[in-house]
Design brief:
The complex is a heterodimer of chains A (about 250) and B (about 300).
Chain A: E1 2-6, E2 9-11, E3 33-35, H1 37-52, E4 57-64, H2 68-78, E5 82-87, H3 94-108, E6 112-116, H4 127-135, E7 138-149, E8 153-160, E9 163-170, E10 173-177, H5 189-196, E11 200-203, E12 216-222, E13 231-232, H6 236-246
Parallel strand pairs in A: 1-4, 1-6, 4-5, 5-11, 6-10, 7-10
Antiparallel strand pairs in A: 2-3, 7-8, 8-9
Chain B: E1 2-6, H1 17-28, E2 31-38, H2 42-49, E3 56-61, H3 70-80, E4 86-90, H4 93-105, E5 110-114, E6 116-119, E7 122-127, E8 132-138, E9 143-147, E10 163-166, E11 176-183, E12 196-200, H5 210-220, E13 223-226, H6 228-232, E14 253-257, H7 263-266, E15 274-279, E16 292-295, H8 298-310
Helix pairs in contact in B: 3-4, 5-8
The chains are: A alpha/beta (about 250), B alpha/beta (about 300).
Bound molecules: flavin-adenine dinucleotide (FAD) and adenosine monophosphate.
């Protein structure tokens, strides 16, 4: 069994993003970057499958600038066997990411590709579904439970608006992780050292025959109108009075 | 120019989010058709045909659409996509699951979660947990879009007399099989449709303690929501989660109880008309967005509020 897991280098989830003063993009200079939290969950799931089925090989893939190597090293420190970087300085949108991942899938022939359900920077929630379409594979998005049934079927529990849905997918399959799939492990120092020695291959989009041009133009970015805090009320009676007579919402 | 809107439904009834997606379609302009793909879904098609402003309802009734599986729905949409310049769905878990697949099959980009239509190819959408609003322009000839329901008022459910056209199912993929569904049952309003929402966070301390929240919700005819921390701790089911990666809501009144106000939570509720926060920590960030803040112990204040509402 081979598992590919897609990891994105994104703004750290504790950082509040701000637009550049000219509105041309998001200010990312000197901002803390980390692995997209959903991708940590995807990596953790890949490693757990590997721990249960020791013949499994796990490979992390990232598309983006040179610094994505750090993200791949983090995945390797968590336990992934090796890493692949598709290196580009351009801004890559979800369809381009899916096309790049497809090129790697064609090379590596995995049985499963795990991704996060959503990158917390662009909040697109697209890449897994797009990759699945490009490959003609099944998809199990927003997964909170994954259970392999031999080498040909996988059961996925999905978080949907009304509750939980369970699907059985033919493999090879795409799975995207939701928050409650697992709790990612902390990386131990010796593993960070070990990860430095693991194999990391780099490709350019040209080498893979890819055109990663944007399909969607970002014209401007701006801050939403700020919501001002209001008043503190003394007690419950005052609160109810305000809601009834001032805001008129109850 | 024509717009196709994918109907959200459970085979028996049309989902309210469809009406918000139709409003976005009306702003884009042109002829608007609705696709109802399901099993024994004629009631849904009928409701869709009554929405004001619709030209036609296209209905595919087949067992392969019974559970809105992405693989099968996407190939059906792609089959009829030639007639449309815009393909829309509400940004529900169904829309989010299906539409990117459609976009990739058509070799076009997708614009997720639009909150306004500036022109037929230019839209705004929140990114970075709603801390930034991007104005984006689609350069592909077909535009695949998901619509954030809180960005658009519901279209009128009546007044339309669209024709219903039945179409054949596309070939079944056989890639995925529906096994089961565990839907949260509740007599309270749905989160997405509620005028008032009472949400609890980690401060609730346990699932049992959520009965305090439920008592207040019942008094107000409200829906119950939660923070991620409360869902992760198992106090309430996953579909209660409000936030960046849960449900986005904008009711008339949102009452946050024992919720600190992390940016990921605010992303899902800060467009509510009136926000109330009850928290024992007066420094909690939730007070920064609350119109009315009450500093106090929720185990004392919330029951007191229920009692005071009796008067
Ligand atoms: C990738 C990612 C996605 C996320 N998505 C979401 C999301 O969609 N939605 C979401 O909500 N979060 C999300 N989060 C989590 C978010 O960062 C916060 O961790 C979470 O919102 C905190 O929940 P909370 O406010 O209930 O808990 P806490 O931050 O622990 O706050 C509990 C609050 O309760 C108060 N309290 C405790 N006891 C009492 C009492 N007796 N009376 C009154 N007040 C009391 C405390 O003062 C405190 O302010 C996400 C995080 C990540 C990394
Ligand atoms: N540049 C990237 N490199 C690697 N994986 C990515 C990249 N962008 C997105 N992904 C994967 O796709 C998932 C969904 O991203 P998105 O569709 O952009 O919200 C992420 O959680 C990642 O697993």
């Amino acid at each position: 069994m081979k598992i590919l897991v897609a990891v994105k280098r994104a703004i750290d989830y504790n950082v509040k993003a701000r637009p550049k003063s000219d509105g041309s993009g998001v200010e990312l200079a000197n901002v803390k970057m980390s692995m997209n939290p959903f991708d940590e969950i995807a990596v953790e799931e890949a490693i757990r499958i590997q721990e249960a089925e020791t013949t499994t090989e796990t490979v992390a893939v990232s598309i983006g600038a040179k610094q994505c190597q750090e993200t791949l090293r983090t995945a390797m420190a968590m336990g992934v066997d090796r890493g692949i970087l598709v290196e580009t300085e351009e801004d890559v949108q979800p369809l381009a990411v899916a096309q790049a991942l497809k090129a790697i899938v064609d090379k590596e022939q995995p049985d499963l590709v795990l991704l996060g359900k959503q990158a917390i920077d662009d909040d697109s929630n697209q890449v897994g579904q797009m990759l699945s379409a490009l490959l003609g594979w099944s998809q199990g998005t927003f997964a909170c439970g994954v259970e392999l049934k031999g080498n040909s079927l996988v059961t996925v529990r999905r978080e949907v608006d009304g509750g939980i849905q369970t699907l059985e997918l033919k493999m090879p399959a795409i799975i995207t992780s939701d928050l409650r799939l697992n709790e990612p492990r902390y990386v131990k120092l010796p593993n960070i050292m070990k990860a430095k020695k693991k194999q990391l291959d780099t490709f350019t989009p040209d080498e893979l025959g890819l055109d990663l041009a944007s399909r969607i133009k970002v014209l401007t970015v701006s801050e939403p109108p700020v919501r001002e805090g209001g008043v503190k009320v003394e007690d419950v009676n005052q609160l109810i009075d305000k809601l009834r007579n001032q805001a008129k919402v109850i | 120019m024509a717009v196709l809107v994918l109907a959200e439904h459970n085979n028996a009834a049309l989902g309210a989010s469809t009406l918000n997606a139709v409003s976005a379609a009306l702003e884009i302009g042109g002829d608007i058709d609705i696709l109802v793909a399901g099993l024994d879904c004629s009631e849904v098609a009928k409701s869709a045909s009554e929405i004001k402003g619709i030209r036609k309802v296209i209905c595919a009734d087949s067992s392969c659409y019974a559970h809105s599986l992405a693989e099968d729905l996407a190939s059906l949409i792609v089959k009829i996509a030639g007639d449309y310049e815009h393909l829309l769905a509400a940004a529900t878990t169904t829309g989010k699951n299906v539409m990117p697949r459609v976009a990739a099959l058509l070799d076009v980009g997708q614009i997720s979660d639009i909150i306004s239509v500036l022109s037929p190819d230019t839209f705004t959408r929140p990114i970075y947990a709603g801390n930034i609003i991007a104005t984006v322009q689609a350069t592909d000839d077909k535009k695949v879009i998901t619509v954030r329901t809180t960005g658009f008022d519901a279209a009128s459910e009546t007044g339309g007399t669209a024709v219903i056209e039945m179409i054949e199912a596309a070939s079944e993929s056989g890639l995925a099989t529906f096994i089961s569904e565990e839907l949260t049952k509740s007599d309270r309003p749905e989160l997405a449709a509620a005028n008032i929402i009472v949400s609890g966070g980690r401060g609730m301390g346990s699932g049992e303690n959520f009965s305090i929240i439920e008592a207040l919700a019942d008094k107000l005819g409200a829906a119950v929501g939660a923070s991620r921390a409360a869902v992760d701790a198992g106090y309430v089911p996953n579909d209660y989660q409000v936030g960046q990666t849960g449900k986005v809501v904008a009711p008339d009144l949102y009452i946050a109880i024992g919720i600190s106000g992390a940016i990921q939570h605010l992303a899902g509720m800060k467009d509510s008309k009136v926000i109330v926060a009850i928290n024992k920590d007066e420094e909690a960030p939730i007070f920064g967005v609350a119109d009315y803040g009450l500093v106090g112990d929720l185990f004392k204040e919330v029951p007191a509020m229920v009692e005071a509402l009796d008067d």
